[in-house]
């Protein structure tokens, strides 16, 4: 786990209040400072979850999302220290993710079921890659090796496309996520997640189809 010593020192109460006021008044650059100077708190809270089968760096990333939410929703007038409020938000974000992951498989093969179609039949990611855009999908054969598809994901997708595909179809230890879950996690709209997902699938299908030619 990353040592708390590697994070910037926390703000003094005076600095914290000053930066919060500036951020709340619209000086958004102070949001970054508030996040960076509270990362030590995230790392400290993550230590409580070392018994869970989650990567520490992943937990810090998840905890940081909770920290960001805390900074954005913190009410100065209530008089509670930011650290006290943020600790609850960080805990909640981590616990919510752990509970969601517990309901899902820790890893999902491209051939494992990820949902059910209108007829009640189980569908897989490979089914999706072979069911949409018929003119392209006919070129995609289910016998394509999983390793090959993973390589394509790494080589032809942007970082954002790769992240969404991996989260949507359980290609990472964080498990399968809905578009709504991903939108919340990445702080973007669900419709934007859907557009990126469709664009990424088209890229994969086109690439795999052209190789067969």
From TrEMBL:
<keyword id="KW-0731">Sigma factor</keyword>
<dbReference type="InterPro" id="IPR013324">
    <property type="entry name" value="RNA_pol_sigma_r3/r4-like"/>
</dbReference>
<keyword id="KW-0805">Transcription regulation</keyword>
<keyword id="KW-0749">Sporulation</keyword>
<dbReference type="GO" id="GO:0006352">
    <property type="term" value="P:DNA-templated transcription initiation"/>
</dbReference>
<keyword id="KW-0238">DNA-binding</keyword>
<dbReference type="Pfam" id="PF04542">
    <property type="entry name" value="Sigma70_r2"/>
</dbReference>
<dbReference type="InterPro" id="IPR014284">
    <property type="entry name" value="RNA_pol_sigma-70_dom"/>
</dbReference>
<dbReference type="InterPro" id="IPR000943">
    <property type="entry name" value="RNA_pol_sigma70"/>
</dbReference>
<dbReference type="InterPro" id="IPR014209">
    <property type="entry name" value="RNA_pol_sigma-K"/>
</dbReference>
<dbReference type="InterPro" id="IPR036388">
    <property type="entry name" value="WH-like_DNA-bd_sf"/>
</dbReference>
<dbReference type="InterPro" id="IPR007630">
    <property type="entry name" value="RNA_pol_sigma70_r4"/>
</dbReference>
<dbReference type="GO" id="GO:0030435">
    <property type="term" value="P:sporulation resulting in formation of a cellular spore"/>
</dbReference>
<dbReference type="GO" id="GO:0016987">
    <property type="term" value="F:sigma factor activity"/>
</dbReference>
<dbReference type="InterPro" id="IPR050813">
    <property type="entry name" value="Sigma-70_Factor"/>
</dbReference>
<dbReference type="GO" id="GO:0003677">
    <property type="term" value="F:DNA binding"/>
</dbReference>
<protein>
    <recommendedName>
        <fullName>RNA polymerase sigma factor</fullName>
    </recommendedName>
</protein>
<dbReference type="InterPro" id="IPR007627">
    <property type="entry name" value="RNA_pol_sigma70_r2"/>
</dbReference>
<comment type="similarity">
    <text>Belongs to the sigma-70 factor family.</text>
</comment>
<feature type="domain" description="HTH cro/C1-type">
    <location>
        <begin position="178"/>
        <end position="198"/>
    </location>
</feature>
<comment type="function">
    <text>Sigma factors are initiation factors that promote the attachment of RNA polymerase to specific initiation sites and are then released.</text>
</comment>
<dbReference type="Pfam" id="PF04545">
    <property type="entry name" value="Sigma70_r4"/>
</dbReference>
<keyword id="KW-0804">Transcription</keyword>
<dbReference type="InterPro" id="IPR001387">
    <property type="entry name" value="Cro/C1-type_HTH"/>
</dbReference>
<dbReference type="InterPro" id="IPR013325">
    <property type="entry name" value="RNA_pol_sigma_r2"/>
</dbReference>
């Amino acid at each position: 786990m990353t040592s708390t010593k590697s994070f910037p020192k926390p703000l003094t109460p005076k600095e914290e209040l000053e930066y919060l006021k500036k951020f709340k008044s619209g000086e958004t650059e102070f949001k970054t400072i508030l996040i960076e100077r509270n990362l030590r708190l995230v790392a400290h809270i993550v230590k409580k979850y070392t018994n869970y089968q989650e990567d520490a760096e992943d937990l810090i990333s998840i905890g940081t999302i909770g920290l960001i939410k805390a900074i954005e929703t913190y009410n100065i007038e209530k008089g509670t220290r930011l650290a006290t409020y943020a600790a609850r938000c960080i805990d909640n974000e981590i616990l919510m993710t752990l509970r969601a992951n517990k309901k899902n498989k820790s890893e999902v093969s491209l051939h494992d079921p990820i949902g059910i179609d209108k007829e009640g039949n189980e569908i897989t990611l490979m089914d999706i890659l072979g069911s949409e855009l018929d003119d392209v999908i006919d070129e995609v054969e289910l016998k394509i090796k999983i390793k090959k598809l993973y390589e394509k994901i790494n080589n032809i997708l942007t970082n954002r496309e790769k992240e969404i595909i991996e989260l949507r179809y359980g290609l990472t230890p964080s498990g399968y996520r809905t578009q709504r879950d991903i939108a919340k996690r990445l702080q973007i709209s669900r419709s934007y997640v859907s557009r990126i997902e469709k664009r990424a699938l088209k890229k994969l299908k086109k690439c795999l189809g052209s190789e067969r030619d």
